[in-house]
Amino acid sequence: MKNILVIQNHSPFDGVKCREALDTALIFAAVDQNVSILFKGDAVFCLHPKQIPDIANLKDYFKTLKMLELYDVENIYACKHSLVERGLADTGLYLDCIILEKERMKSIMLEQDHLVNM
């Protein structure tokens, strides 16, 4: 079993990029890989607790984020710097995430067999 970290960088309102990252994580998990996912940059908006995708004419993929738990993706990370920069540090997040400082984020990346940057 390989350790794979899917790094999500894009806003949930930037086309289908967030959905593709989520699908990638779920596919790796379905074939019994040890998958983690990291939300950083604008991707932390995926974790905002009050998403209303209908306003932007988007499919509600946010409910699909809960599938990570069903696929045993236990390590769900969020970049603290990204959360603070975007005013999300003091909000409850949609998923139960491990909030990472930059140094810890780097060490977790070094522990992986593969990084999938999306």
From TrEMBL:
<dbReference type="InterPro" id="IPR017462">
    <property type="entry name" value="Sulphur_relay_TusC/DsrF"/>
</dbReference>
<protein>
    <submittedName>
        <fullName>tRNA 2-thiouridine synthesizing protein C</fullName>
    </submittedName>
</protein>
<comment type="similarity">
    <text>Belongs to the DsrF/TusC family.</text>
</comment>
<dbReference type="InterPro" id="IPR027396">
    <property type="entry name" value="DsrEFH-like"/>
</dbReference>
<dbReference type="Pfam" id="PF02635">
    <property type="entry name" value="DsrE"/>
</dbReference>
<dbReference type="InterPro" id="IPR003787">
    <property type="entry name" value="Sulphur_relay_DsrE/F-like"/>
</dbReference>
